[in-house]
TrEMBL record, chain A:
Pfam families, A to Z: HMGL-like
UniProt protein name: hydroxymethylglutaryl-CoA lyase
Pathway of action: Metabolic intermediate metabolism; (S)-3-hydroxy-3-methylglutaryl-CoA degradation; acetoacetate from (S)-3-hydroxy-3-methylglutaryl-CoA: step 1/1
Record's keyword annotation contains RNA-binding: no
Catalyzed reactions per annotation: (3S)-3-hydroxy-3-methylglutaryl-CoA = acetoacetate + acetyl-CoA
Organism: Oncorhynchus kisutch
SUPFAM superfamilies (UniProt xref): Aldolase (SSF51569)
Annotated family: Belongs to the HMG-CoA lyase family.
Residues in Pyruvate carboxyltransferase domain copies: 29-296
Entry keyword annotation includes Manganese: no
TrEMBL record, chain B:
Domain Pyruvate carboxyltransferase, first and last residues per copy: 13-280
InterPro entries linked: Aldolase_TIM, HMG_CoA_lyase_AS, HMGL, PYR_CT
Family annotation (PROSITE patterns): HMG_COA_LYASE (PS01062), PYR_CT (PS50991)
GO terms, molecular function: hydroxymethylglutaryl-CoA lyase activity; metal ion binding
Originating gene: HMGCL
Protein name listed in UniProt: hydroxymethylglutaryl-CoA lyase
Organism of derivation: Oncorhynchus kisutch (Coho salmon)
Pfam short name (any one): HMGL-like
Length: 322, 305
């Protein structure tokens, strides 16, 4: 049935029964480009280091403010990211962009800093089962690890971004309670993450579940410290992103060319395409500072290198227009 | 920047399935009559309340729809389900009624250039032609649905004024169309433009009589549909498996996939009467017959689990 959420002193939401509300969209949305890390990590083809570097350099040219460059996980687990040090050291770092890298634990963090990282990211989950299966420990234990990283990062003035996966559903547990999501987000925020990205890991969310989850999370953490990371596995990403914008979120994760399939539904799509998000935002008059045609170029480049077709509808349309 | 007053979402949305007509018309492969009939029957079984069955245009122009009479006579009409057919003029209307049509559809454009290129006459001339159809339809007790294409952009003219769309919609409504479907023909629309458009059109035509027909060429369809719902629209056109590419951007996608729309609506708690697994069966069937992959993300995701 319809979502009905007890809101306390909060403004009622359009997705609840019978309400009217005047909304304004953000004037500016910060785009967080995850293609080189999240995208490539989930591509089957091993990508040569120089290709990764060129991709990141091309993305820097587009005006993207945040580009997730690589991941300091053990190369045993994620061979695609084995060249993390080389990549981080070889990329041209634009003055208007930041290049966070994933650091699952202290070991990874130390390697990242040694390689010159100036921003890191930690990856939690709202689902116990997913946490166990993905990083081999409970949510609580993962928080202990992250606490170590975040404390050390703080001392070195290195900002930390947090991710919460399974925010709208888990491949193992199914639906996830929004209160649980809020709890995990709050923990990461209070530990010291400057921003927490809410991941719809399997793309099952729809505007109603997105709105509901955001209500609960925003009771604990301000919207200015939140981002959404929507997967397009069921085609819902742009609608979900639009919903998030209507609720005051102004930071969006996406992946050039929609790189990165869904590991839980083989052959299905994963990350939402940066090009398609930009098309929507720019069409709405929302600023991003990003040049869409240059993103399309970067997408063309990486798709050729991967010998795959783009997942971006905008890229498909633009390349085929008569 | 767009600022809008949001209404509560509708409790029920009527889905108008255009796959068998709009979808197949824009597929290169010629589809055998029995396949068309079976597709429509499967869609009826899936619970869709409106299924656009075929088009009474001259087979010279649209060979895919040459078997229009056979299809109309061959389908299993489910009680309570409507099977509108396109009728570009009086001649087509008469043939449609003869073949048993109880509802017809007429296709106007908000762009002069598009009208000229698509149906060889000005918007005004086309509306005059349609008036003949709506008159005859009234006398015959046949319902008429109106379409306006290029509502958010035209492949030739570029930008289209919402007021022009409102004028055309108003004329179609005044001449007797019970519902006007607003088509983003090249899929260039975004939520801000959609909201602006609906504000303009709903000043001339009651929002209950409006539908949206979004194309997913730039991936914007579901976002545009969501905004439309928030503005009071409760009728959505879509095409099973996202059949029907975009004739203006070869290889690009066209119609939004019914499966993806239904997934969103059901996720929102909105009733549609549609059985999603049965709908996906219909999509799988037609894709096999056409030897093509589905354009529906829901279908792609689900079949691999």
């Amino acid at each position: 049935g319809m979502v009905s959420v007890s809101m306390g002193r909060k403004k009622p939401c359009v997705f609840c029964t019978r309400c009217t509300l005047t909304h304004e969209y953000p004037e500016y949305v910060k785009m967080i480009e995850v293609g080189p890390r999240d995208g490539l990590q989930n591509e089957k083809e091993m990508v040569p280091t120089r290709v990764k570097i060129q991709l990141i350099n091309m993305l820097s040219e587009t005006g993207l403010p945040v580009i997730e460059a690589t991941s300091f996980v053990s190369s045993k687990w994620v061979p695609q990211m084995a060249d993390h040090t080389e990549v981080l050291q070889a990329i041209h770092r634009s003055s208007h962009a930041r290049y966070p890298v994933l650091t699952p634990n202290m070991h990874g963090f130390q390697d990242a800093v040694a390689a010159g990282a100036t921003e890191v990211a930690v990856f939690g989950s709202a689902s116990e089962t997913f946490s166990q299966k993905n990083i081999n420990c409970s949510i609580d234990d993962s928080m202990l690890k992250f606490e170590e990283v975040i404390c050390t990062a703080k001392q070195q003035q290195i900002p930390v971004r947090g991710y919460v996966s399974c925010a709208l559903g888990c491949p193992y547990e199914g639906p996830i309670e929004p209160t649980k999501v809020a709890e995990v987000v709050k923990r990461l925020y209070e530990l010291g993450c400057y921003e927490v990205s809410l991941g719809d890991t399997i793309g099952v969310g729809t505007p109603g579940s997105m709105a509901k989850m955001l209500h609960y999370v925003m009771e604990e953490v301000p919207s200015s410290a939140l981002a959404v990371h929507c997967h397009d596995t069921y085609g819902q990403a742009l609608a979900n992103i639009l919903t998030a914008l209507q609720m005051g979120i102004c930071a969006v994760d996406s992946s050039v060319a929609g790189l990165g399939g869904c590991p839980y539904a083989q052959g299905a799509s994963g990350n939402v395409s940066t090009e398609d998000v930009l098309y929507m935002l720019h069409g709405m008059g929302i600023k991003t500072g990003v040049d869409l045609s240059k993103v399309i170029e970067a997408g063309d480049f990486i798709c050729k290198a991967l010998n795959r077709k783009t997942n971006s509808k905008v890229a498909q349309a633009r390349s085929k227009s008569s | 920047l767009a600022t809008c007053t949001w209404k509560a979402l509708p409790q029920r949305v009527k889905i108008v399935e255009v796959g068998p007509r709009d979808g197949l018309q824009n597929e290169k492969t010629l589809v055998p009559t029995e396949v068309k009939i079976h597709l429509i029957d499967m869609l009826s079984e899936a619970g869709l309340p409106v299924i656009e069955a075929t088009s009474f245009v001259s087979p010279e122009w649209v060979p895919q729809m040459a078997d229009q009479v056979e299809v109309m006579k061959g389908i299993n009409r489910r009680p309570g389900v409507s099977y509108p057919v396109l009728t570009p003029n009086l001649k087509g209307f008469q043939a449609a009624v003869k073949a048993g049509a109880a509802e017809v559809a007429i296709f106007g454009a908000a762009s002069e250039l598009f009208s000229k290129k698509n149906i060889n006459c000005s918007v005004d001339e086309s509306l005059q032609r349609f008036e003949e159809v709506t008159k005859a339809a009234k006398e015959a007790g046949v319902r008429v649905r109106g379409y306006v294409s290029c509502v958010l952009g035209c492949p030739y003219e570029g930008q289209v004024s919402p007021d022009k769309v409102a004028q055309v919609a108003k004329r179609l409504y005044s001449m007797g169309c019970y519902e006007i479907s607003l088509g983003d023909t090249i899929g260039v629309g975004t939520p801000g433009g959609m909201a602006e458009l609906l504000e303009a059109v709903s000043r001339e035509v009651p929002v209950d009589a409006l539908a949206v027909h979004c194309h997913d060429t730039y991936g914007q369809a579901l976002a545009n549909i969501l905004i439309a719902l928030q503005m009071g629209i409760s009728v959505v056109d879509s095409s099973v498996a996202g059949l029907g590419g975009c004739p203006y951007a070869q290889g690009a996608s066209g119609n939004v996939a019914t499966e993806d729309v239904v997934y969103m609506l059901h996720g929102l708690g909105i009733q549609t009467g549609v059985d999603l697994p049965k709908l996906m069966d219909a999509g799988a069937f037609i894709c096999r017959s056409l030897n093509r992959k589905t354009s529906s993300k829901v279908a792609q995701a689900t079949c691999k689990l």
